[in-house]
Amino acid sequence: MASPQTKRKRVPVHGVLLLDKPVGLSSNDALIKAKRLLNAEKAGHTGTLDPFATGLLPLCFGEATKFAQDLLDADKTYETVVHLGVTTTTGDTEGEILDTREIDVSRLQIEEALSQFTGDIQQIPPMYSALKRDGKPLYEYARAGVTLEREARAVRIHQLTLIDFQSPYLTLRVCCSKGTYIRVLGEDIGAALCCGAHLNALRRVQVGDLTIGGAVTLEGFAELDEASRQSALAPVDALLTSFPKIQLSEDLAKRFLHGQRLALGKEDVSLPDGEGRVRVYRQLDDALLGTGRMQAYGVLAPERLIATANKIDC
């Protein structure tokens, strides 16, 4: 009788994989596949993409998971195709058709409609969403034919650009704040044009400072050997590029890693202007130590620390 297959032991992996998620795969399923390919101990994603959507899904491994929240809060950029004249139960192609109307709109009318959705707007979250009510996601109620009252939420559309209009399809580029539902935006644009609409395609092309240009597909990642997969990961601090950088001497680095607040002077480090979050490095080897917050009078308070930084002799 053959012996049972030995389970591979997970290993520490630290970094960020910029994944180009395919259509039809949930964000969690994509994470599980990438984690298995890296044989990684710890992993997490930085905000979900619907199975219907494609594009940039940053996956965090090891120490990078400590900073995933920063991307959850970051602005996002999408490219989407809005199908005018047809509404569906889900606001995208996965739902059943509710209504079909004739389309009689000009490019000027479209531009005028889009201007209504630039800046601070209110959105009512869709029933087909993962938001929870009494511990159950809204999409479970929706699948049971139940519609619940939802409060409108404030979001911000930084930029809404019409890329192309070939009736019945609008191709748009949307730069928006966290929490924006592009499906709802497409439906609201259709309502403003008095013809209804749903999303025909949705692709995320940017999260914070990270762009789709450096992303890999799951198929391409699977074809790499183990060393090449590790090399494909961006460093942990790829998530922190929007924060000012400061470097600490060996002594200050040790104290910072022990969670001590540091009173810094200009003779110690090059201090950023004002208060706020910073990324902190050891001057000796430029190793990331974590993030901190600059406070009044040059005080640096540790925030999230890199555990592996202590393993480097300092």
Question: Which secondary structure elements does this structure contain, and how are they paired or packed?
Answer:
Layout: E1 15-21, H1 27-38, E2 43-45, E3 54-61, H2 68-72, E4 76-84, E5 86-88, E6 97-100, H3 107-115, E7 119-123, E8 132-133, E9 136-137, H4 138-143, E10 153-166, E11 169-176, H5 182-192, E12 197-207, E13 210-211, H6 218-223, H7 226-231, E14 245-248, H8 250-257, E15 262-263, E16 276-282, E17 287-294, E18 299-305
Parallel strand pairs: 3-12, 14-16
Antiparallel strand pairs: 1-3, 2-3, 4-11, 4-12, 5-6, 7-10, 8-9, 10-11, 12-13, 15-18, 16-17, 17-18
| Overall geometric form | globular
- Outline the biggest β-sheet: 9 strands, mixed
Question: How do the SSEs run, as a string of H and E?
Answer: EHEEHEEEHEEEHEEHEEHHEHEEEE
Roughly what percent helix?
10-25%
Count up the helices.
8
Proportion of β residues? 25-35%
Kindly name the structural category. Answer: alpha+beta
β-strand number: 18
User: What's the overall average pLDDT, rounded?
Assistant: 90
Task: Calculate the terminal CA-CA distance, rounded to whole Å.
Answer: 53 Å
Q: Could you list the spans in which at least 5 consecutive residues all have pLDDT below 50?
A: none
Radius of gyration using CA atoms only:
23 Å
